[in-house]
Design a protein that fits this description.
This protein is α/β, with parallel strands linked by helices. It has 26 helices and 14 strands. Helices cover 46% and strands 11% of the residues. Strands 3-5-6-7-4-8 form a six-stranded mixed β-sheet.
């Protein structure tokens, strides 16, 4: 029968093992951070003892007269702790749902057989607290089964004005929830609170033990608890967040990616604060500190990334450089890393265009070419002008750019857009109008919202080919169809102006576009059919570069003989007619 019972002699030997039970140093720290009193401290030590030393589990089994019950119970705790100064009722009250130990998620009563009395149910210390007491903090997330994100306050966050405002709101004596939205919002909140922030994904709230575990983690780490990933919730699922706000004994801090996500909880009064993206100086400083490179001015100006994205981009660029045996990344590596960090799901909604051309491939008059180079210079240096030179305070727009390319088919509109993408190192996506324009009322706006919403933060160039099919002239309103057609054009204007990147529209029929729409564009570039002299000069330059004669190949387009290419390329076909004439 050995092992099925514990004799009196064995119990006395277990109790006499060591003059005094050792208390781990983490116990005093946990008591301090959980804000526990003297009785709670003793109850917590009693409940945690089997987690720290197995012999206490055998002692509890002896006291329960059941070898399967190795954890403490409320009745056992009352028997062991109560004396002349502490009554049994005071000890039993420490296990109530509203008591500090239960409210902090430190302990919980386990489910038992129906015949088991309430006071005899076993008490389990939270896995996260047990890992903390054992000094195995790295095992806490795995043991608790809750995916938490830990954000530390860093000097790289910047945004001093927003940080100070958040600091005042966090210190305010109110239970109104605080909502911070924008890139690096979690890090800026951590900087304002001057403590780490523990973030729980909103979808995790469907698990009943997720929120108590997150509260416990925040208390043990002396951190602030926040709820993020609000964008993952459907309208029906947002009720869980609202219930959390209503039932939480502590103030709730919410972290959202955008203002639209922040306002999704508009049914509750909240303090909403926008966290702007890092400016040019902060991005440049982050590139230097995270990568160790001094040549970060250009990549910081072209790519408006958050600090978290810059960290990921730097890791990609360093790996790319070391794969070639170079100690430091080149500017092209930084551009590649930035593209990877800012990549989005835009490829599911649009077609990515490869930057296969350069300035030498364009056959344009001097004036359009100058405008194209001005657009390239604007996108490359806008943040330097706005931030370093101080013009940002006088500019009330999002600093994006809207351009119209107008001209016949084959005059180089798409090629010019690809040249800009290649020159700047930015990704370019062509929006498929077949999947955007819908005959159903309101569907076109929804499709445009999906495209622009996905493109936000991607730093990509959006290219709308055959734009007149979508952005035609607004007509007189004679029926509901005319009214909704006009709404589409107006909505697109609003969405384009809010996009911080470049939007390029291309059309073969400029006269079909609404004039009010055209006036609100930043640039309108006409692509006329090249003059015979320009075509002849271009053909001569290509022939000189690759050699004349039948079967020669055009530079940059391997496998295409010049003579065969001329039968398909309108520019070269016209040049052949000029030479023949």
């Amino acid at each position: 029968m050995r092992g099925l019972y514990i004799s009196d002699e064995q119990a006395l030997a277990l109790a006499a093992d060591g003059s005094e039970p050792p208390a781990p140093p983490a116990l005093a720290l946990a008591v301090e951070r959980l804000g526990l009193g003297a009785i709670d401290r003793i109850v917590l030590a009693l409940c945690a003892a089997p987690e720290l030393e197995p012999r206490f589990g055998r002692l509890y089994a002896y006291l329960h007269d059941d070898v399967t019950r190795k954890l403490a119970s409320p009745r056992l705790a009352a028997d062991l702790v109560s004396d002349e100064s502490v009554s049994r009722d005071e000890v039993l009250a420490r296990f109530a749902p509203g008591a500090p130990l239960s409210r902090r998620g430190a302990i919980r009563l386990l489910a038992a057989e129906p015949a088991t009395t309430l006071a005899d149910r076993q008490v389990k210390v939270a896995d996260r607290l047990a890992a903390f007491l054992l000094g195995a903090v790295d095992l806490a997330d795995a043991a608790a089964g809750t995916a938490l994100r830990h954000v530390s306050p860093e000097d790289l966050t910047g945004r001093a004005a927003t940080t100070e405002r958040l600091r005042l709101l966090l210190a305010a004596d109110t239970r109104l929830p605080l909502v911070a939205y924008g890139p690096d919002a979690g890090a800026v909140v951590a900087a304002a609170a001057r403590t780490p922030v523990v973030l729980l994904a909103a979808r995790e709230l469907e698990r009943p033990d997720a929120l108590p575990d997150a509260r416990l983690a925040a208390a043990l780490e002396h951190a602030l608890l926040g709820i993020d990933r609000l964008e993952d919730l459907s309208p029906a699922e947002r009720g869980r967040v609202l219930r959390t706000i209503d039932e939480s004994p502590d103030r709730v801090v919410l972290i959202a990616a955008s203002r639209r996500d922040a306002l999704a909880l508009s049914e509750r009064t909240a303090l909403v604060v926008e966290v702007p993206g890092p400016d040019f100086a902060e991005r440049r400083r982050a590139w230097r500190q995270l990568i160790g490179t001094t040549d970060a001015r250009e990549v910081a100006a072209k790519f408006r990334l958050s600090i978290e994205q810059i960290r990921a981009a730097g890791e990609v660029s360093v790996i790319a450089a070391r794969s070639r045996g170079q100690p430091a990344p080149l500017p092209s590596d930084l551009d590649m890393g930035a593209r990877h960090a800012s990549s989005s799901r835009l490829g599911e909604l649009a077609t990515r265009l490869e930057p296969a051309y350069s300035w030498d491939d364009l056959v344009l008059a001097e004036r359009p070419l100058e405008v194209l180079r001005s657009i390239s210079a604007y996108l490359r240096h806008r943040d330097r002008v706005l931030s370093e030179w101080g013009y940002e305070a006088t500019v009330s727009r999002t600093q994006g750019i809207k351009v119209l390319f107008a001209g016949d088919s084959g005059t180089g509109k798409t090629m010019a857009a690809q040249v800009l993408g290649a020159e700047l190192g930015l990704e370019m996506f062509r929006v498929d109008l077949a999947g955007t324009v819908s005959k159903y009322v309101g569907e076109t706006e929804k499709n445009l919202e999906r495209i622009f919403g996905t493109a936000d933060g991607s730093n990509a160039i959006l290219f709308f080919d055959e734009a007149d099919a979508l952005f035609g002239k607004r007509s007189e309103v004679s029926d509901a169809h005319d009214r909704y057609a006009n709404i589409e054009v107006a909505y697109l204007l609003q969405r384009m102006e809010a996009y911080p990147g470049a939007v390029i529209l291309a059309t073969n029929f400029r006269r079909n576009l609404d004039e009010a729409f055209v006036r609100r564009l930043d640039f309108v570039i006409d692509f006329p059919f090249p003059e015979p002299d320009a075509l002849a000069a271009d053909l001569g330059a290509r022939a000189a570069a690759c050699g004349s004669g039948r079967g020669r190949r055009r530079p940059g387009l391997p496998g295409q003989p010049l003579q065969a290419l001329g039968r398909r390329d309108p520019q070269l076909l016209a040049c052949r007619r000029v030479q023949r004439d």
